Amino acid sequence: MAAFLDDEEAMVAQDGARLGLTVWSAQDASAPNHVIVGVHGMNNYAGEFRLAAPEWAAQGRAVYAYDQRGFGRSVGRGHWAGEELMREDLRTAVSLARDRHPDTPLTVVGISMGAAVAITAFASSRPPAADRLILSGPGLVGWGVLSPAIIGLSNLEGGGRLVSASVAFRDE
Questions:
Q1: What are the Cα distances from residue 125, in Å, to 39, 55, 150?
Q2: What is the number of other CB atoms lying within 10 angstroms of the CB of residue 84?
Q3: In 3-state terms, the chain is what percent helix, strand and coil (to 5)?
Q4: Judging by beta carbons within 10 Å of its beta carbon (0-12, 13-18, 19+), is residue 85 exposed, middle or buried?
Q5: Which domains does the chain show, CATH number per domain?
Q6: pLDDT tens for residues 8-40?
Q7: 132-136 β-sheet, strand order
Q8: What pLDDT is attached to residue 106?
Q9: Which residues of 49-58 are buried (b: 16+ CB within 10 A; e: fewer)?
């Protein structure tokens, strides 16, 4: 059964695999005003969010960044897990974060390869239950991937819209 482990240093994926997890809890708040699920890039791990996440936490946001399979503290180090399994891990991480904070806006932030995983997950027939998606330097190859990106935006909860990352967390 998928779960965030109590020590908040790992999540158990849908297939029972243990994936590294780093959590930055919202500071000075009984409950976060926003939840972020971070998806790192190639040859990196959840620590890729070590500069931004403390700032987000100081602003009342909870951040959950997991190590994708084959990276960081996760199983299969150095082994490519395959696109569908990586998409399923993102769906699981979002679902677990949503379960912890059911009435809180949730944004997926994907960097490089993590952004590519996010695009394909949001463009799939089972997109993650997120409200927003921020892509930082998405790892895209060729023009053919732009159509799935547009489809992915339309799969966001409440309908998709493109916003600048600099205003993505502005209160509206």
A1: 20, 34, 14
A2: 11
A3: 30, 20, 50
A4: middle
A5: 8-159 (3.40.50.1820)
A6: 689 999 999 999 999 999 998 789 999 999 999
A7: 3-4, 10-12, 18-24, 61-66, 34-39, 106-111, 132-136
A8: 97
A9: beebbeebbe
Question: Can you tell me which residue has the tokens 């994708």?
Answer: 68
Q: Which residues contact 2 (CB under 8 A, 6 or more apart)?
A: 11, 12, 13, 14, 92, 95, 96
Count of positions (residues) in the chain: 172
Q: What is the pLDDT of residues 104-150, one digit of tens each?
A: 999 999 999 999 999 999 988 999 999 999 988 887 765 555 555 55
State how beta strands 34-39 and 106-111 pair.
Answer: parallel
State the residue for tokens 């158990």.
Answer: 12
Tokens 């990586």: give the residue: 86
Which pTM does this prediction carry?
0.82
Measured between alpha carbons, how far is 89 from 15 in angstroms, rounded to an integer? 9
C-alpha span between 115 and 139 (Å, rounded): 7
Q: In the predicted model, what is the mean pLDDT of the chain?
A: 83
Output the CA angle 163-41-44, nearest 5 degrees. Answer: 140
